[in-house]
Amino acid sequence: MINKSYSPINLSDNQSTCLRDRGAISTKGTSSHKLIDEVMYMVYPSGAKRLEIEDAEEMIVWINDEKYIPSVRRKIKTWYSNRKKIIVINSCKEKLHIRYCSEYHIKNGTEGWLSLGYMNFIINEQKYIPDYLTEGDRTFDAFRQFLQDYSLEKVSAETGLLKSVIEELYEKLSSVSQSYHWLAMSMTKSEVAIQKLRSIILMTTIKRKGKELLNIPVFYEREGDNFHFTPPLKRKKRQSTVFSIKGPLSIIGFKGNDLFERYTDNHKVSFYDWDFADYFDVDPLPHIYSV
To answer: pLDDT tens digits for 61-115?
Structure first.
């Protein structure tokens, strides 16, 4: 388990491995689409609602399951007829080969690498800081340091895309003011799946204005069953420790409610989040390991 003490410590290699390999978590009875909902509502500010697709100028489709291909093809045709740009990030065995889409075929299970690499590209390469944060936000600084492990070279090695192709994709993603992410994804109930989802949802918050964070530009394929979803309750304030990635894992070692005032602000997102970690029993940073 993660050590939540305030004293600076260094985890051994064995302890670090345990963080990666905890495997399935307690999400009994949770379907893929409900899991996506839970992750969305834990990442976005309280009170956030889904953005209308009509308000987006670009659709980004994430697909990892062949069973969704017929439905996704129909939707893409409709979106294209409505003059939307379309990017497909496909980790299925089969390519879509739709001429009016930009399709990027990646290795199965590497969506998290691609999304964290995008955030590293924006935050560390382009030196971008979300407007709802400040230069001195130490939790964001820890997240920024963490992202350095997801360089273009490493993302290329994991996803199978050439570095130049990844740069092309990231430039496309960052050049549009309002994108909408459509998840045609089947999820296992595991820490790996949760952190992968979290990284995709987090990347939708980058380069958005504070008040825009009350609109969630994400929806998903589902198989027809309706369910009642109640967003998780979020605590308003919390004392905690901030992680910094040096070696396997080390703790900076500071605390204070002043660091967590974002929980009282409806226009902020937490990139380093103990509430998320506690709710799902995962790391407070969105670690993605090699597949």
So the answer is: 999 999 999 999 999 999 999 989 999 999 999 999 898 899 999 999 999 999 9
**pLDDT (average), residues 222-236:** 55
Tens digits of per-residue pLDDT, 132-144? Answer: 776 667 888 899 9
Q: Which fold has domain 32-237+257-278?
A: Dimethylsulfoxide Reductase; domain 2 (3.40.228)
Tokens of 68: 């969704």
Helix axes 191-203, 32-43, angle to 10 degrees: 50
pLDDT tens per residue across span 5-55 = 322 222 223 322 222 233 333 334 457 888 999 999 999 988 888 899 988
Pairing of strands 215-216, 102-105: unpaired
Measured at the CA of 69, the angle between CA 64 and CA 74, to 5 degrees, comes to 135
Region of poorest pLDDT, from 115-119, 196-200, 259-263: 259-263
pLDDT of the residue at 265? 52
Q: What pTM does this model have?
A: 0.79
